């Protein structure tokens, strides 16, 4: 997919040519250049910030700390080595990236509000550090930075070109990340981090990588900026206001987009310049910025660019009503493809031991509530095993302990002979454990196809930088969609589908990892009878092709007709287990769960 469309490309080339031509065509443009330097700086910072805060949704309110780190790296090394700080931009980038990597490993363990507050704390810590490490930083007096050796007549023009170059590189980096699997994974994390992990995305590596990368443009710009200002002190280098402005820039332009932060950066820098010239002091400027921020958040929460884009698309779409394909036609469409052949291609890997999944003495307590109370169960390879029980009996909690979403209070999980009790959620997904959720958890801002290509079969650096539509994943995703009869929905937003369709997409998503066992949590609840039949067909086909299934379901006729073996859970304990015939006639089960009328709608066995 091309990130930049043709008319946009034309505008961009034109803008770049104009920016390059300005110092040459208008020799007397030092003032304009100095204003544009601020524009470049803010656009660079907002684009860098966007990598972690826009894509992954981890909003950092202290990101200018990495500009400060770049400035001090430049200033200190320029003094030590007696060179110009501008030459030290790559080092500034490197130091910022390494510091961000270390900080990221710690701060990215927190989320949402705690993360925001911690990022501010990080900025303030560096402010204090710079003020107190007098021998290195000159304390609060700061450091004078060696001035350039180029001819005086050149003025700020060299800074102008170098920073413009850095802006182009930063946008290129952002574009590269966005079209890579790393970018897709980050957006998945923003949508639903737990779900992202459950389909095999190593969320820690993704977040830390993005956080570290996001510091690179800051660090590089900092080394230049130190020399441009000629002076570095703690308050200037680690200014919280700079962080607020750059967040504002990204929000105004449109966070999570490629060009939004760039446009926002220019707007904020221009606003800063004009408000200083025409309205006087800093305080009135901050006040106006505050008002703008409130207005943006209230009326344009997704930012300028996405708002314009969606208005434009709405205009274009008027008349051609969105095509909703009814569910009956999906059910019909499956007959056109050879689903059995596809099923054998989508299923997992070779050999697994006879007991594909073993749960031993699993206990999970929430405070005083014991949701799972010493459950042991075995799932046989190639079986469809049922897990039934009244609401609140601990079925979902057991699933969460098996998949690693919850850490069990005690007990063990053994998957294909390996103890995975302490493995991470994403690594269990790679080991062949697939799982769907009771309430579907798709990435709502992504298309159906993107939802399917987001899971990763491997996690290596090469895999992360590969294009998100590269490799055979797209072909396989389309094949899986065809298998589920969902091929028409490929380009639809996942959020636009019905609840039942979303459940099928979620199953398709899990199939992308070629799981050896799939845990289905109430797949038939809340979906219409046509889709239930279809779902049963899909489950049977997958099972015939070699996939093991563990299914939680309240639709007893469905469970009785699908399963080879059934476990009954009540109040966190296994009440009994057996074949469908045994379960149907067990008086304890009838009393605890099924009730005397349970056979009324059961199919002929
Ligand atoms: P089921 O899926 O069988 O309907 P659950 O596993 O969702 O049941 O819930 C079992 C019990 O555990 C319930 O009493 C529920 O309130 C409790 N529970 C589940 N998740 C949590 C949680 N995150 N915190 C506290 N209690 C929980
Ligand atoms: Mg449940």
Structure, described:
The longest helix is centred in the middle third of the chain and has 27 residues. The protein folds into two domains: 307 residues, no CATH class; 256 residues, 3-Layer(aba) Sandwich (Rossmann fold), CATH 3.40.50.300. The protein is α/β, with parallel strands linked by helices and 605 residues long. It contains 27 helices and twelve strands. It is elongated and about 95 Å long. Bound molecules: adenosine-5'-diphosphate and magnesium ion (MG). Magnesium ion (MG) binds next to helix 18.
Beta fraction = 5-15%
Count the E strands: 12
Most strands sheet: 6 strands, mixed
Distance between the termini: 50 Å
What would the average pLDDT be, to the nearest integer? 88
Strand order of the largest sheet: 8-9-10-5-11-12
User: Total number of helical segments?
Assistant: 27
Q: Cofactors and ligands present? A: adenosine-5'-diphosphate, magnesium ion
Please tell me how large the radius of gyration is.
29 Å
Helix content: 55-70%
Q: How many domains in all?
A: 2
Q: What is the overall shape? A: elongated
- Determine the oligomeric state from the structure: single chain
Poorly predicted runs of 5 or more residues: 321-335, 600-605
- The secondary-structure class comes to alpha/beta
């Amino acid at each position: 997919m091309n990130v930049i469309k043709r008319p946009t490309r034309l505008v961009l080339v034109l803008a770049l040519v104009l920016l390059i031509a300005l110092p040459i065509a208008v020799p007397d443009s030092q003032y304009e250049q100095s204003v544009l330097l601020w524009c470049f700086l803010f656009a660079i910072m907002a684009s860098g910030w966007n990598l972690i805060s826009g894509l992954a949704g981890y909003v950092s309110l202290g990101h200018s700390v990495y500009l400060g780190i770049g400035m001090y790296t430049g200033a200190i090394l320029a003094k030590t080595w007696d060179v110009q700080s501008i030459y030290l931009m790559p080092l500034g980038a490197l130091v910022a990236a390494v510091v961000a990597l270390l900080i990221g490993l710690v701060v990215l363990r927190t989320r949402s509000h705690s993360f925001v507050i911690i990022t501010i704390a990080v900025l303030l810590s560096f402010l204090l550090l710079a003020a107190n490490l007098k021998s290195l930083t000159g304390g609060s007096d700061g450091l004078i930075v060696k001035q350039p050796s180029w001819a005086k007549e050149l003025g700020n023009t060299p800074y102008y070109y170098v920073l413009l170059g850095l802006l182009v590189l930063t946008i290129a980096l952002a574009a590269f990340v966005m079209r890579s699997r790393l970018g897709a994974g980050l957006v998945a994390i923003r949508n639903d981090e737990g779900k992202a992990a459950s389909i095999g995305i190593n969320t820690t590596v993704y977040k830390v990588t993005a956080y570290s990368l996001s510091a690179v443009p800051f660090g590089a710009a900092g080394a230049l900026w130190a020399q441009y200002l000629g002076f570095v002190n703690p308050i200037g280098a680690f200014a919280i206001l700079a962080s607020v402005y750059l967040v504002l820039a990204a929000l105004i332009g449109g966070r999570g987009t490629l060009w939004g932060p760039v446009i926002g950066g220019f707007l904020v820098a221009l606003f800063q310049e004009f408000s200083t010239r025409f309205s006087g002091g800093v305080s009135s400027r901050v006040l106006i910025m505050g008002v703008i921020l409130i207005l943006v958040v209230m009326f344009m929460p997704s930012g300028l660019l996405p708002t314009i884009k969606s208005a434009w698309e709405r205009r274009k779409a008027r008349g051609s009503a969105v095509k909703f394909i009814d569910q009956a036609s999906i059910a019909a469409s499956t007959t056109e493809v050879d689903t059995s052949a596809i099923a054998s291609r989508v299923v997992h890997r070779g050999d697994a031991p006879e007991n594909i999944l073993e749960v031993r003495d699993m206990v999970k307590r929430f405070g005083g509530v014991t949701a799972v109370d010493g459950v042991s169960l075995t799932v046989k390879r190639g079986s469809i095993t049922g897990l039934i029980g009244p609401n609140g009996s601990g079925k979902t909690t057991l699933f969460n302990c098996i998949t690693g979403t919850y850490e069990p209070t005690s007990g063990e999980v053994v998957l294909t002979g390996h103890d995975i009790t302490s493995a991470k959620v994403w690594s269990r997904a790679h080991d062949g454990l697939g799982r769907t959720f009771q309430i579907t958890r798709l990435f709502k801002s992504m298309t159906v196809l993107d939802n399917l290509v987001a899971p990763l079969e491997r996690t290596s650096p090469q895999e992360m930088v590969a294009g998100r539509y590269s490799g055979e994943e797209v072909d396989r995703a389309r094949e899986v969609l065809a298998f589920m009869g969902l091929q028409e929905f490929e380009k639809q937003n996942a959020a636009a589908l019905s609840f039942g369709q979303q459940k099928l997409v979620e199953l398709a998503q899990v199939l992308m990892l070629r799981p050896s066992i799939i845990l289905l949590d109430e797949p038939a609840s809340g979906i219409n009878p046509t889709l239930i039949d279809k779902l049963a067909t899909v489950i049977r086909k997958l099972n015939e092709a070699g996939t093991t299934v563990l299914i939680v379901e309240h639709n007893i006729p469905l469970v009785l007709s699908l399963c080879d073996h059934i476990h009954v859970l009540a109040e966190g304990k296994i009440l009994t287990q057996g074949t469908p015939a045994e379960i149907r006639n067990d008086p304890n089960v009838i009393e605890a769960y099924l009730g005397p009328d349970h056979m009324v709608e059961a199919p002929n066995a």
